[in-house]
Design brief:
Layout lengths: L1 H14 L5 H6 L18 H27 L7 H12 L9 H6 L8 H18 L3 H19 L8 H7 L5 E2 L2 H10 L13 E5 L4 H5 L3 E4 L2 E5 L4 H22 L9 H19 L13 H11 L2 H13 L4 H14 L3 H12 L5 H7 L1 H7 L14 H6 L12 H4 L2 H10 L4 H14 L2 H12 L11 H17 L8 H9 L15 H7 L19
Antiparallel strand pairs: 1-2, 2-4, 3-4
Helix pairs in contact: 1-11, 3-4, 3-6, 3-7, 3-12, 7-11, 22-23, 24-25
Length: about 550
């Protein structure tokens, strides 16, 4: 018992105070976390891995955006930067229905979803155990966590409750008295700072506000900086950075007490390699012709970021049902081929998914032939072309059990609304798209509107092909992470910058009906489906 008590004491020094329920209750009550107290309770290793993977996906997006800051001297944390970062974080991959960043951001009046709070806090504390080990890992972790905090603090809806959040988390900044505020109003023009009589102004030491001073968002007087609460982001992030750095140093000091070198630490290391290192290596790989190469490991995150609705729907059904009927396989297989998935990787990708229901031998006999056929390796050896929007809309409409088709054309209003809400499209834009579909029957225009909602920082486009949608989306994310414009630069300028760095899409993949289509039409459409399938075009 004595040993257990001493070990608990050392663990409390390693990960923080575990005997202060008031602090634990406050930490994470709102969508802003400073992780001052560790989580309590038990979780399985499987749940721990899922939570850690979810957080690493968010941190990897912050990593890509910060790399853009490093690569361009003109890259600034401007409005477009934060809009891009938030959009990508909201759509980040998660094994759960929605990632914890989305749930915390969309919480009511800044309050967090309890499940999101648990995943957020637990994943942060688990990752501390891994990233405390070396200075390089600590530096990476601290900067990415600070960026995640920074984008949360940029939410204007937090301004009214930010003083309460700061007070609850031990940020003991002094608010100036009303009499002192009145004297400032008399002596200084606060117009540039948008101050009002109701504004909360903090008085902090000059050395704690250097970044705010640099951006000229403070008034200096007698060694103190006077800052509006909405301009406290840099000050808060600076203090959080200092606290986290100190906490990681303590974690490293007592890490051996946890005795996790053979169990938890190797798992965390494996997840880091799988999520962070793999994402880095897969961000921009190219084949001999200079075209981007896509691997099976990249498909899930790419589907959330850059797949058009028709292909995203097929991908979600594949992941859910582990099977696609003939036209679903045909449309999706040719699309994946068009974005750069090799034949070998395509076989591996579909084999891995289909064999969750079928035997490998059955997959080899009944499905691999069609995949090789798409790549011109079987039959007449004609290389297949990905289908255009017009062909997907007008040819071979989906029947019960099919997954192909255009959601804007073939979904009813209820299922279309469910699908769009699942992609985080707001109600006003959903209404606009439904009007385009119902009144004008302009399905391509609705898809173009969908593209604009998902890539708000990028010029509008007219969507006419799934692979064109994908290519423009990758250009948009390339612009947002590598070469964003300076303030005042127009959307046209963005397109010009990007066109110099990214090759144009191969227009040959947009060819209409050809010998390949006629050959496919002569094939037996579904050799393997013997059991009935429900209509999977509903996203419910």
């Amino acid at each position: 018992m004595e040993f257990k008590t001493n070990r608990d004491l050392r663990l409390s020094q390693t990960i923080g105070s575990i005997n202060n329920p008031k602090r634990l209750a406050n930490d994470g009550e709102y969508c802003i976390n400073f992780y001052t107290s560790p989580p309590m309770g038990k979780i399985s290793l499987e749940d721990a891995e899922d939570m850690v993977t979810e957080r690493l996906n968010l941190l990897s997006i912050c990593d890509e955006m910060l790399k853009g800051l490093e690569k361009s001297s003109t890259f600034r944390r401007n409005k477009m930067y934060f809009e891009t970062l938030e959009s990508r974080l909201l759509n980040a991959e998660s094994k759960f229905d929605k990632n914890f960043y989305y749930l915390s951001t969309k919480g009511l009046n800044g309050k967090k979803d309890p499940e999101a709070r648990k995943r957020d806090i637990t994943s942060h504390w688990l990752l501390r155990l891994y990233y405390c080990q070396t200075d390089e890992l600590k530096k990476w972790f601290i900067s990415r966590e600070c960026e995640l905090l920074r984008v949360r603090l940029m939410d204007p809806s937090l301004t009214p409750i930010l003083p309460e959040i700061l007070a609850q988390n031990g940020f003991n900044y002094e608010k100036i008295e009303e009499s002192e505020k009145k004297s400032f109003l008399e002596k200084i023009s606060w117009n540039l700072l948008s101050v009002t009589k109701e504004s909360v102004i903090y008085k902090i030491r000059f050395e704690e506000s250097l970044e705010a001073v640099r951006s000229r968002k403070v008034f200096l007087n007698n060694g103190f900086a006077y800052i509006l609460v909405q301009d406290m982001v840099s000050v808060i992030c600076s203090k959080f950075r200092s606290q986290l750095s100190h906490a990681l140093a303590l974690s490293k000091l007592y890490l051996h007490e946890l005795e996790e070198e053979q169990r938890l630490i190797p798992r965390l290391h494996s997840l880091h390699l799988h999520v962070i290192d793999n994402r880095k290596s897969n961000v921009k790989s190219e084949d001999d012709s200079g075209r981007e190469v896509v691997t099976p490991q990249m498909i899930d995150p790419l589907s959330k970021e850059s797949f058009p609705p028709c292909m995203q729907n097929i991908h979600e059904i594949l992941r859910k049902e582990h099977h696609l009927r003939h036209y679903g396989r045909l449309h999706y297989g040719l699309f994946l081929k068009g974005i750069g998935l090799s034949l070998e990787d395509a076989l591996d990708f579909f084999r891995q998914e289909f064999t969750k229901k079928l035997t490998p031998d059955k997959f080899q006999k009944e499905y691999s032939y069609n995949i090789r056929y798409n790549y011109g390796k079987e039959g007449k050896r004609i290389i297949g072309k990905a289908y255009s929007c017009q062909k997907i809309i007008n040819d071979n409409p989906p029947a019960t059990g099919d997954s192909h088709g255009c959601p804007f054309k073939h979904f009813d209003n209820n299922n279309l609304k469910i699908f769009l809400r699942k992609q985080h499209i707001d109600e006003n834009n959903i209404s606009e798209m439904l009007e385009m579909v119902e009144k004008d029957q302009n399905y391509s225009m609705a898809c173009s509107k969908y593209f604009s909602c998902k890539h708000q920082w990028y010029p509008n486009i007219n969507v006419y092909h799934p692979n064109q949608y994908y290519t423009e989306s990758r250009k948009a994310f390339h612009v947002s992470t590598l070469t964003p414009p300076q303030s005042g630069q127009t959307n046209g300028d963005i397109s010009m910058i990007d066109s110099n760095k990214i090759e144009s899409i191969d227009e040959s993949i947009f060819d209409a009906e050809d010998d390949f289509d006629r050959s496919v039409g002569a094939m037996d459409l579904d050799l393997s489906v013997t059991e009935p399938f429900e209509n999977n075009d509903s996203t419910q």
